[in-house]
Input
Amino acid sequence: MSAPSTFSLEGRGLKLDTEDDTKSHTQDLQSTTTHTNVSLSGNTLGAPACTALAPLLSAQTSLTSINLADIFTSRLLTEIPPALSSLLTSLLPLHKLSTIDLSDNAFGLKTQAPLVDFLKQHVPLRHLILNNNGLGPEAGTHIANALSDLADRKTEARASNDQSDIPHLETLICGRNRLETGSMAAWSRAFQKHPHLKTVKMVQNGIRQSGIQTLLRDGLKHCSELEVLDLQDNTFTHIGAGDLATVLPSWKKLRELGVGDSLLGRKRGMGMLCDALARGENRELAVLRLQYNEIDGRGVGRLLKTVEEGKLPRLRRVELNGNKFAEEDERVERLRTVLERRRDEAGEDGDEGEWGLDEFSDLEDEDSDAEEEEEEDAEAEGIDSEAEEKKEDEKEKEKKAEVIVRDAEEEEGRNVSQEQDEEVDVLAEKLGKTEMI
Output
């Protein structure tokens, strides 16, 4: 097997409008047809340039991964569909191409059609990264339905004699896309049809409690091989936390769980989560992200008890910043000590961000006992007032106002936000370097 070979224009900031514009930058792509990785990310490509690139890409028969993130900056919405169609159509014949990153491109209702057509057909797809694309719930539904169709195509291909070695979809990253509750039924169907998913990241999508319920109960519970789940910065409350607690024991291979900034709550949500972990069915769990959830010292104590009882033997990292407890709380210190001891026993001296507790730079003061008792009384009586829900809605809107990607169709020519997601970038790079069949 030949060594991996990469063609990259990544981060060059090139503005390629025509075929002539591409020639001086693609000589290696023209002369070599054995590249395994291609990255065009961080440039802006016009439709004629994409037409010129198409045959060069389709000739790369050894291609396993392609990075097409952030390639339409400054382009009009009318330019994107034909450009995207040229690129994606050229990739369909490449039977080894399993990893595709299309992050930071505007794929709203007016621009998503070529992507939908591609996703329905490309059966070699194993890892899909769609981060910060301005989809919205309607375009998000189209993408999810396309993935359901893809599952059917994969099944058909496996049944044929000449295409039996078809990979499962293993990675789905679709964060910062305003998918909202309205698209969760479609995403749940997609997850039902792709039960071999190992990594799912859908952070910051404006999904409310009922949507989280649908996603977990009707969709992700079928993904028994799940290893990484990140649903941070959506709205769980104790309602979604209840469904998370129900399905959590079924993910026996889960290594990372991210539910930070999700309004779990100090008592009911955190309590249900800890009760589920205490069942001892998630013994592979290594990373738990719980930042900004109004968790108090008692909630930390419940997690500590689960850890000290040996129910989470591989836990090495817990993120708790932004919650409601004192940094010097004895329960926090005991949890820190346990995690540091595990690091020492493992002989690890690498990145501190992979072990122990995160830095407590934004802790809130614990509320008074009277306020806690009032909340507990309300919970005991089943009170869930409209005023509290409205307050929660306003809090969520204010919190997300600066980070939600605005709909690409609202103003022609407006690009999706170019704010980078470091974790997604790192994962995309790892996937790109992984040799795929």
In short: The two ends are 11 Å apart (CA to CA).
